[in-house]
Write a structure and sequence with these properties.
seven-stranded mixed beta sheet, Aspartate Aminotransferase, domain 2, 2 domains, five-stranded mixed beta sheet, binds pyridoxal-5'-phosphate
């Protein structure tokens, strides 16, 4: 069966474009924002400031460092670094945030953001289908500090309101969520949070700031595993948190500098390199993934495809008003149930590596239905479940590969 030629998703056509589409062009931000080439003798690529320490020409200059807001003066890379600053400035601009802070991994960003919003004895409401290690941090780690968590399905904003306790200080969101790509109505949920003085965090790794800006819908802190699309080449592990000046200043001073999980300058430099092509990469991921997801939906062996924007989308209104596009990661469920079918399919693929990450140039598959643990909050009902990352290879080659593997089920 040949691929349909409608790679661009009709759900995002000009006519249905909400006002929200009017944001600064991400390609221009990635190419220019946050850079001052004159500082670096006209070099188009900023240098890597691969140093821990910055020294001062005089004691007076050093004491100037302790005056508020003198960001131009550097003293130590755990606090700030000129290479990392460029990556942070670009990501803050892409997200519509005042400031961003890079971390040594997505989990370092997640734990820092959560810790900046809770204290001993607090209560968190979190999305059931959040990324597995995030759930582990919330359930198994924070309990040491007497912090409790309630998980919600998340589709209905009312569930979030019903879960609020007198000591709730945080709503943790991930939209679309891991494995099953369920979305949350950010406008409605952040309105409930504001009513109760509750902070909100959203993991935006899947959509990237090119296709979704949670802050524009009222979220306080947005975060990413920059290991995925922002880096985009499977060559760094990185994370980032972005938000308002007030929240980020506190987070930078406390969870940033005291817990110390910085992104090192070389990884920051690779992150900047990755960001340059983020919008064009995303466009290609979207085009190929949409073609392949639609072809899967039409295939007799397939029971369901979990990918926002398809004709089977159960949340089309959120897709249309919250997202500007879709990325290259989705899950497929086969009619033939059981982990054996899933393993046979994945083992038969030739271009898809078997691996748990995503967001790079390469296509990947994980036999989620055969791996109890990776299903996280998704549940064991999805035993014939495979998550695919559609990389930058030819969509036709990838589809031929998938079509052949479907015969092996
Ligand atoms: C991978 C991932 C993370 C964690 O990021 P690391 O860089 O691996 O620490 C967080 N959230 C989501 C949705 C992820 O897929």
């Amino acid at each position: 069966m040949p691929l349909a030629h409608n790679g661009g998703n009709p759900i995002f056509d000009e006519n249905s474009a909400p006002e929200y589409l009017n944001v600064p062009d991400p390609g221009t931000i990635c190419a220019h924002h946050g850079e001052d080439r004159e500082l670096h003798r006209g070099a188009v690529i900023p240098p890597i400031y691969q140093n821990s320490l910055f020294t001062f020409p005089s004691c007076e200059e050093r004491s100037r460092k302790w005056l508020p807001h003198d960001a131009e003066i550097y003293d130590y890379t755990r606090v700030s670094n000129p290479t990392t600053d460029i990556a942070e400035a670009k990501i803050a601009a892409l997200e519509g945030a005042d400031r961003a802070r890079c971390f040594g991994s997505g989990m370092a960003a997640i734990s820092a953001a959560i810790l900046s919003c809770v204290k001993s004895g607090d209560h968190v409401v979190a999305l059931e289908t959040s990324y597995g290690p995030t759930r582990q941090f919330l359930s198994d780690y924070l309990i040491r500090f007497g912090i409790s968590v309630t998980y919600v399905d998340g589709d209905d904003p009312g569930e979030w309101a019903d879960a609020v306790l007198p000591n709730t200080t945080l709503f943790y969101l991930e939209t679309p969520s891991s494995m099953i790509f369920k979305q949350q109505d950010l406008r409605a949920i952040t309105a409930i949070a504001r009513e109760h003085g509750i902070a909100t965090i959203a993991d935006n790794s899947w959509a990237t700031p090119v296709y979704q800006n949670p802050i524009r819908f009222g979220v306080d802190l947005v975060l990413h595993s920059a290991t995925k699309y922002l880096g985009g080449h499977s060559d760094i592990v990185a994370g980032v948190v972005a938000g308002s000046e007030a929240r980020m200043k506190k987070l930078q001073a406390e969870e940033g500098c005291l817990l110390g999980g910085i992104l090192d300058p070389f990884a920051s430099w690779l992150l900047i390199r990755g960001l340059r092509t983020l919008p064009v990469r995303l466009q290609r991921h979207q085009e190929s993934a949409t073609k392949i997801a639609n072809a899967l939906l039409d295939h007799p062996a397939v029971a369901a495809v979990y990918y926002p924007g398809l004709r089977t989308d159960r949340q089309p209104e959120i897709t249309r008003t919250q997202l500007r596009g879709t990325s290259g990661l989705f899950s497929v469920e086969f009619k033939q149930s059981g982990p054996e079918a899933v393993r046979r399919f994945v083992n038969s693929l030739k271009y898809f590596g078997i691996g748990c990450s995503w967001g790079g140039f390469e296509s990947l598959a994980i036999p989620a239905g055969a791996m109890e643990k990776s299903l996280g909050g998704v549940g064991t009902a999805h035993r014939s479940f495979v998550r695919l990352h559609i990389g930058l290879e030819s969509a036709e080659d990838l589809w031929d590969d998938i079509e052949a593997a479907l015969k092996a089920i």
